[in-house]
């Protein structure tokens, strides 16, 4: 009879110290002993460091100098601590700091701490691979660890002990085979963290959990059977009540318009305009699902908004009504299981890469989609995840043919009542994907569809790849004529690059490309036929440069001269185009620009908002005369003043370069913030901002129109520059040409109203309900000094409270607004 192995004894430790440096002194110790899955003992004491605490440490921990003055010095408690730790496994969150500091303090008292170390950060990253952040505060929120008083030693140690227990529970829920595979890579963990896994592995059942299947050595989550759809009432208000949502008059009025247009016999395109913040998504989803005679396809501008609808409205509809939903993206977002399986067999030296193999083994037991966007930490070794991207090719005979996530997503879309996708994917796959055609189509944010169509109509070829192919053929060429033609083609491409680098020549004419076109045609090589086909068309051409790690890559891009007639591409089905910005001006609307003729137009009247205040200063610097550094400095000055209000601040910028400049300057000023293009993907930094991790979020792009901030009851929005389109943008130039040809004024009939509508949409990001309060600060002097500024002011005043005031009074006015409108 074998003797039962004694359970590991874990000492979960947290220290508070005078600083985070190696010279820090301990001021507080918390120790929690965990054994056999239970907390069995706790220990806590203050330590007198015999020096004053700085303000930051006092504020962070709540510990005072008076409290420490009566505490024992470390020597008085050293033996007690050492005896408690002896024979244990030392556990901490970011273990190196706590273990090194405590071991050094004990060493100077004559005790040598040689316990193995376990880091709950790397274990949490491994066993909870889809979380956004792994700080103890974030994990406490996500995993319900009951962190009562963060940054006090015993509270943090207790929360870390509960985290260790959660990790142990998670290991025990995993298939034994998966845990065994993890152990083959576990030596790549930084510390002796594998001891936690080693202890539990022998206790795991050899039988697979009911929801897991073993497919050629990989444990995958079974797809849950779709439950029968529950009855949806034809009464939208009743459905909203079942979803646990309050009625909103504007939302119900919007849904009534959708219902009215749905029952029309004619297959016309229905344009419905309604302001942001009324709940348009439910307003069209509920009547179209309940009363439509076909399944529904919803097309939104960005993958961020697609994910947002899936996680919010989609999840609710699935839980309450059992609506079957599929969310479809480009194949590269999905993991290719065959490739991942091969990487498990491959010996890799990189520690981080091998840790990601372990993460993915856990994730495959959880994911039903295989969408790698669920993994929030992959940017730390992006090249490995690029390797795992699905290529869009499906082979039924492959090891994982039946379980191929990309193929399964396509099959699921065939039968789902609701399919979500984005503008770009929809346009690229419309002609080749049958499940898109037999559905009611909703184009959300329809004004953005024009831009997606322009991108779809453009083509791109890699000059760098073409040059490499030309050089390869030159090395093997035998005939003189072939050699001369290959050399001429290479020279022409190199000449284009040199002109771009030395003269900044980006736009190309037919004359610039004539010699290249002729030489490639004479070469008559099938490897270059795509180049010949592109250059034979009557199109606009330009060069683009991109950096990939240390490489500079060059591309030839092209698009058709005129705007794309989008209407002729769309299926002959019932189509709803939804937006807050369908009527751009009295002379221009989105339906015309998209090429639709048989249409209906409905416009829901806007309602005045009392819960949002728009402010602009009288004396603002001239934006045009400022360089990027000066503009960033001005913005940071404003933010530095607003931070004292202790409310979340969303800053919407129109330039990535300016955004990064502001971010760098905020870092120099010591102002904690999150920045798009720097601190992670849009949805990730949005979630971190909403959790209150930092007070300031810098965003551009999708944050203007596609990301809602509904969870903060009070919010400040800063808009440094009016969001006019770039006059040098190719699509803008096309619109200008078309409107001029129609006898219209491009600026006053299109660009100015388009900017105002974009501004209005941006304000709607922070006004998602009547209970939410927000202040918007406009910092663009053109609002006052340009002739069209009066028009912008009048446009905003019809719907918002607007006030002009001096810069010195902005903070006080915001403070009063929030106080006046507080529910308390």
From TrEMBL:
Nucleotide-binding found in the keyword field: yes
Domain Helicase ATP-binding: 237-509
EC number from the UniProt entry: 3.1.-.-
Protein name as annotated: 3'-5' exonuclease DinG
Name of the gene this protein is made from: dinG
One cellular component (GO) term of this entry: cytosol
InterPro entries to which the protein is assigned, alphabetical: ATP-dep_Helicase_C (IPR006555), DEAD/DEAH_box_helicase_dom (IPR011545), DinG (IPR006310), DnaQ (IPR006054), Helic_SF1/SF2_ATP-bd_DinG/Rad3 (IPR014013), Helicase_C-like (IPR001650), P-loop_NTPase (IPR027417), Ribonucl_H (IPR013520)
NCBIfam families given in the database record: dnaq, PRK07246.1
Similarity comment text for this entry: Belongs to the helicase family. DinG subfamily. Type 2 sub-subfamily.
GO BP, sorted A to Z: DNA replication proofreading
Gene Ontology molecular function: 3'-5' exonuclease activity; ATP binding; DNA binding; DNA-directed DNA polymerase activity; helicase activity; hydrolase activity, acting on acid anhydrides, in phosphorus-containing anhydrides
Presence of the UniProt keyword Disulfide bond in the record: no
Annotated transmembrane regions: none
Organism in which the protein naturally occurs: Streptococcus zhangguiae
Segments forming domain Helicase C-terminal: 641-811
Residues where ATP binds: 274-281
Main function: 3'-5' exonuclease.
One Pfam family here: Helicase_C_2
Principal EC category: hydrolase
């Amino acid at each position: 009879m074998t003797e039962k192995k004694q359970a590991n004894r874990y000492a979960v430790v947290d220290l508070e110290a005078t600083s985070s440096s190696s010279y820090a002194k301990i001021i507080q110790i918390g120790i929690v002993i965990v054994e056999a899955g239970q907390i069995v003992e706790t220990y806590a004491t203050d330590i007198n460091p015999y020096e004053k605490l700085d303000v930051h440490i006092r504020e962070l921990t709540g510990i005072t100098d008076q409290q420490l003055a009566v505490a024992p010095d470390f020597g008085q408690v050293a033996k007690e601590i050492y005896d408690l730790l002896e024979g244990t496994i030392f556990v901490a969150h970011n273990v190196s700091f706590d273990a090194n500091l405590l071991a050094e303090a004990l060493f100077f008292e004559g005790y040598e701490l040689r316990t193995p170390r376990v880091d709950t950060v790397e274990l949490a990253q491994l066993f909870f691979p889809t979380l956004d952040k792994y700080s103890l505060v974030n994990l406490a929120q996500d995993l319900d660890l009951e962190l009562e008083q963060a940054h006090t030693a015993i509270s943090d140690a207790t929360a870390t002990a509960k985290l260790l227990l959660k990790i142990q529970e998670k290991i025990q829920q995993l298939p034994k085979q998966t845990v065994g595979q993890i152990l083959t890579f576990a030596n790549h963990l930084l510390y002796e963290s594998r001891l936690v896994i080693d202890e539990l592995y022998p206790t795991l059942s050899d039988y697979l959990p009911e929801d897991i299947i073993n497919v050629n050595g990989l444990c995958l989550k079974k797809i849950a059977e779709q439950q029968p759809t529950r009855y949806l009432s034809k009464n939208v208000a009743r459905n909203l009540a079942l979803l646990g949502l309050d009625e909103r008059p504007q939302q119900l009025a919007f849904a009534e318009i959708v219902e009215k247009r749905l029952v029309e016999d004619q297959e016309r395109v229905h344009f419905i305009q309604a302001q942001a913040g009324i709940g348009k998504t439910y307003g069209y989803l509920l009547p179209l699902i309940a009363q439509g005679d076909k399944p529904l396809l919803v097309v939104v501008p960005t993958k961020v908004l697609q994910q947002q609808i899936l996680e919010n409205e989609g999840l609710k509809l699935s839980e309450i009504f059992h609506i079957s939903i599929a969310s479809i993206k480009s194949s590269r977002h999905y993991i290719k299981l065959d490739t991942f399986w091969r990487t498990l067999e491959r010996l890799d030296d990189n520690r981080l890469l091998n840790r990601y193999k372990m993460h993915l083994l856990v994730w495959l037991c959880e994911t039903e989609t295989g969408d790698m966007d669920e993994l929030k930490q992959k940017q730390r070794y992006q090249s490995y995840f690029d390797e795992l991207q699905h290529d869009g090719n499906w082979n039924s005979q492959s090891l994982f043919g039946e379980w191929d996530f990309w193929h399964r997503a396509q099959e699921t879309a065939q039968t789902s009542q609701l399919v979500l996708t984005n503008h770009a994917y929809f346009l690229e796959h419309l002609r080749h994907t049958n499940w898109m055609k037999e559905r009611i189509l909703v184009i959300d944010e329809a004004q953005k569809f024009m831009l997606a169509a322009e991108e779809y109509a453009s083509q791109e070829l890699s000059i760098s790849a073409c040059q490499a192919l030309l050089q390869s053929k030159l090395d093997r060429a035998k005939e003189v004529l072939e050699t001369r033609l290959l050399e001429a083609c290479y020279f022409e491409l190199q000449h284009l690059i040199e002109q771009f680098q030395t003269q900044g020549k980006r736009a190309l004419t037919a004359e610039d490309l004539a010699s290249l076109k002729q030489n490639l045609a004479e070469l008559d090589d099938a490897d270059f036929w795509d180049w010949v086909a592109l250059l034979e068309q009557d199109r606009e051409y330009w060069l683009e440069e991109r950096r990939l790690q240390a490489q500079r890559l060059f591309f030839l891009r092209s698009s058709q001269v005129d705007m794309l007639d989008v209407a002729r591409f769309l299926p002959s089905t019932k189509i709803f185009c939804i937006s807050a910005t369908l009527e751009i001006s009295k002379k221009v609307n989105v339906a015309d620009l998209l090429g639709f003729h048989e249409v209906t137009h409905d416009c829901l009247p806007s309602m005045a908002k009392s819960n949002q205040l728009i402010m602009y200063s009288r004396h603002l610097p001239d934006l045009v005369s400022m360089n990027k550094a000066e503009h960033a400095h001005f913005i940071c000055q404003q933010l530095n003043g607003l931070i004292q209000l202790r409310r979340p601040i969303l800053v919407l910028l129109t330039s990535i370069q300016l955004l990064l400049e502001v971010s760098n300057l905020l870092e120099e000023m010591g102002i904690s913030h999150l920045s798009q293009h720097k601190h992670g993907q849009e949805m990730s930094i949005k979630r971190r901002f909403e959790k209150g991790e930092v007070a300031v979020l810098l965003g551009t792009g999708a944050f203007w129109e596609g990301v809602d901030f509904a969870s903060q009851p009070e919010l400040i929005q800063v808009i440094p520059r009016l969001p006019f389109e770039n006059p040098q943008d190719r699509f803008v130039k096309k619109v200008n040409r078309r409107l001029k040809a129609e006898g219209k004024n491009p600026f006053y009939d299109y660009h100015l109203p388009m900017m105002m509508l974009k501004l209005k949409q941006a304000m709607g990001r922070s006004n998602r309900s009547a209970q939410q309060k927000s202040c918007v600060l406009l910092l663009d002097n053109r609002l006052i000094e340009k002739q069209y500024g009066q028009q912008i002011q009048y446009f905003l005043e019809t719907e918002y409270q607007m006030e002009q005031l001096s810069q010195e009074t902005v903070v006080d006015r915001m403070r009063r607004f929030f106080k006046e409108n507080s529910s308390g």
